[in-house]
Amino acid sequence: MKQNIKNFLEDLYKIDPSFKSKEDDLVKLIEKMLILKPDIKIDKKFVAELRSKVLTKNLDFNKSEYNIKNNYNIMKNFIYGFGGAFVCIAMFLVIYPSITSISKISSDAESINLNLGGLNISKLSPESFGPLNIGETGKGSAVPGVSGSGGGGSVEVKSLASSDMKIMADPVSYKYIYDGEKFEVKDEAMAVYRYNGGLNSMNKAASILGKINFGLFDLNKFTNLGMQNLSFVEDRDFGYTVYMDFLNGSVNINENWGRWNQDIYKTDCNIDGPCVDSTVLTLKDLPSDEAINKIAIDFLNYYKINRDNYGEPIVMKEWLSYYFENGNQDTSIPDTIQVIFPLIIDGSKVYEEWGNPVGLTVSVNIRHGKASGLYGLRSESYEQSIYKTEQNIDNILKSLSEGGLRPYYIDANSTFKDVKVGKPELALIRVFSYKDNKNYEMLVPGLIFDITEKPENYYGKPKIVVLLVNNIVDDNNNIITPTPIMMKAE
Amino acid sequence: MIINENNIIKECQNGDLTRFAEIYDFYINKIYNFIYYRTGHKEIAEDITSTVFLKAIKKINSFTVGSGTFSSWLYCIARNTVIDHYRTNKNETDVNDLWSLGKEDNFIANIDNVFKIEEIREYLKHFSVPQREIIIMRIWDGLSYKEIAEITGRSEGSIKMNISRALKNIRKKTTLSAIIILFLLN
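Output (structure tokens, whole complex):
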């Protein structure tokens, strides 16, 4: 008899000794009551999201408006999706001088667990990465007389706009303005992440090679092997090619071009004409976001690609604005639409410098109604270090007004136009830091402001990103400058 | 209780709120389950759980180490938040009867839990409102007599008295199996 039941019985007998005569029934009943306890499975994503929210509640908006609840899926360790198929590859494979096609992966093969996947975050001491050397914010201020080429010499900026040699319209610069609800950055320090994934799988993957008899040379003469990449192809209609990069721990999938129906592109038509017109897709052929997302989700589910570390899918349709703005609704649309599942680290979405989400990208071929590719699947491994943040809202708004991260060069003679932005989203911004002759991928806390009101013919950035980490080395070379068109005549 | 829980709390109260992570990790499942048993609804339980922990970290300085267990303090917040939820969202006559309030929700994700909860409801109908709460806290929430007393504002002695009364009640109205529930409280 289990000890806990004994304890219950002892307590029971202390209250009423007559229960002793019904011990067998009591034992069964106690077991039943214990079994009837509901089995509650708390949502792990909710747990991680709430943890992040509770511990890193940085922006103090009105709670009723600023609510990130259930917006994101939070990652934990995830199992690399292709392991299930890939690890079953045949160990005893003889390769002849011609390529032998593998029509079926043997289920009897000895498995090798490459364990490429998983979200791993190693915590380091504060400011372990040193100065971040990203090159940055608010450096788009007007600086008359500064060369835009960065290559020495000087060209007076004013000369480009002087009326006697003007070949283009007066330059326009934008001032980004936030006049919404007040906000504050509560945390004086936030986590910065540095990517260090995918380096540990080469040797494991190379262990497969030891089982292969090439018949061409003695592979065993090579020592300390590491497999850098591997690619394979599905030889079937609408099959895929898969490229696995063990050095970076990433996987890309693309169409096996030869096996995707290309008949539609075979035409003897001229560039213009009815038979060409019949092959193009127009806006009326564009499926709903729901339908597109379903294709992407079904694809990921079929290949068992875990989405725990990624948010809900976003159909990328910025290109649509060009159609509506230009009124060309009958113009052809792309065959392939991108769906991005944004990466989420510690409860924050990851964006790139222009404010677009970073994560799993599934290409959906809307002509065939199938996913045609996958990009961005990799082992997510980071080092984390705490850095001081910018809490002065005036500084943040000043940086915003000048264009935030990677500002456009501002001509001193520009006509300034106001662009209004909305309430910022706190996120992680993927930037690259060049140090010691190496390029490091970093995730830095930042605010993303969407454009809410823009002047006519606005050609600036759709979103403004302002980094919140202070320890950034200024680098004017990172300002986006125009290429000088004309030099002033001497 | 977490090892060195009081030290962790003191550090939180001194400004090192990162230590709250240990508290969160230890209590999240317990608090969520506590709320789920009383709401039977996943999304509502998540909402209320979120509110509880946000309240807890915000009000951490209001807890006095040594005046009671932190566990009881946290469960008290959870209990009151559940009550507040029903007060603002339902026209119930007795919001203190937390065990019966969740029954009106139409959606319970796990069908097995539905049957289990419904079966237990039948047993608990024979108990008074305070007794139901005590029983669930003891058997399913796994709280000690001391914690139950602190949460519900009762002494340890009165808890045992309630259990004894419930026992007698069960003996009159139900089968032997229901009696066992009460004895598990001991």
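The mean pLDDT of chain A is 70.
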